[in-house]
Write a structure and sequence with these properties.
β1 and β2 form a beta hairpin. The chain has a two-stranded antiparallel sheet. α1 packs antiparallel against α5. The protein is built from 14 helices and 2 strands; from the N terminus they run ααααααββαααααααα. By secondary structure, it is mostly helical. The chain has one domain. The relative contact order is 0.21. It holds the Pfam family EmrE. InterPro entries: EmrE (IPR032713). Keywords: Membrane, Transmembrane, Transmembrane helix.
């Protein structure tokens, strides 16, 4: 239950990403700067945290031991996640991007077969947790209901360019996160892991920033400030909170799916934020029904997680082996 609360709190800070990215695009800022500046601003904060916790030496040792994997999964988990999100903000409003992003709930569940768990001396390929998939699908239905009244007011091209990149991000984020947890094997804390992934993804962000410099020029002061806010709220606070929650339940696909499903609450926070900051009107009745379904889905995930936590680890392993 604590992990789910951490996930919801992370979703609150993640919501600033969608609101501010859309705000920067409306002000004429390039998605190239929006994406790269976030990680540039994350770096000093994470360095201070890791150095203060005396974790730098262990982090560098881990990165040097398997540099290619660090580069690969950091690229998947950070670049293929945030680049498409900021690009999609160029074509779609915040509600469209944040709503489509919730596909990551189902994507995370579907990724289970890509991972192998050791049970004694036996390698067991993880299975898709069916109950978690069903509950996540319920949440997805609620999100689709939110989208229906809004989707009628935008063109097909905007829908396509606002949706497809986000679907790529929806798979990339949980895949990169889980692969890095698997790679680190609990040897690094969350701060070290986020810093390591940020450093490993820097070459791509530097290339994007150089390209932006020669194509669109320097970013405006407004975009720099808003990117700083995104870097702190979403890049540092939200990412660390979410990674702590997922790291605690990394051995259980059902619980992991429940924590990842907390990202659905981002839609609620984005809608509230846009109403307050951008003057967006209250959603239509069908969208409000969708919000209720999302809340019900979250409650079901919480209940299912509590049931799982009451089972003994031995019985759970036996059940998995027999199924």
């Amino acid at each position: 239950m604590k992990e789910i609360l951490l996930g919801i709190l992370a979703a609150l800070f993640f919501a600033f990403t969608f609101i501010l990215n859309r705000s920067m695009e409306l002000d004429g800022g390039s998605w190239l700067w929006s994406s790269s500046l976030r990680y540039f601003f994350m770096l000093p904060f994470l360095l201070i945290i890791v150095f203060s916790r005396k974790g730098w030496h262990l982090l560098t040792s881990e990165m040097k031991s398997q540099p290619s994997k660090w580069l690969l999964w950091s690229f998947v988990g950070f670049v293929l996640f945030y680049g498409p999100l900021t690009y999609a903000a160029s074509f779609g409003p915040g509600w469209l991007v944040s709503g489509t992003w919730q596909f990551t709930i189902v994507a995370g569940v579907l990724l289970a077969p890509f991972f192998i768990t050791m049970m004694g001396n036996v390698k067991v390929r993880q299975k898709i947790p069916v109950i978690s998939l069903i509950i996540s699908s319920v949440i997805l239905i609620g999100i689709l209901l939110i989208q229906i009244p809004q989707a009628q007011s935008v063109s097909f091209e905007v829908l396509l360019l606002g949706i497809l990149p986000v679907i790529v991000a929806a798979f990339a984020y949980p895949l990169g996160n889980r692969k890095m947890m698997e790679l680190c094997g609990g040897r690094l804390d969350t701060y070290q892991r986020v810093l390591g992934m940020t450093i490993a993804s820097l070459p791509t962000w530097i290339i994007l920033a150089i390209y932006a410099l020669f194509t669109v020029g320097l970013p405006s002061m407004s975009q720099v400030i808003q990117s700083l806010l995104v870097g702190i709220s979403s890049g540092v606070i939200a990412t660390v909170l979410f990674f702590i929650a997922t790291d605690r339940v990394r051995e259980d696909q059902g619980k992991l799916a429940a924590v990842e499903a907390t990202q659905s609450t981002e839609v609620l926070f984005v809608i509230i934020g846009e109403m307050i900051l951008l003057g967006v009107p209250l959603p239509e009745p069908i969208a409000l029904i969708g919000l209720v379904i999302i809340i019900i889905g979250m409650l079901l995930h919480s209940y299912h997680t509590m049931l799982i936590s009451k089972k003994s680890p031995i019985k759970e392993k036996q059940a998995e082996l027999q199924s």
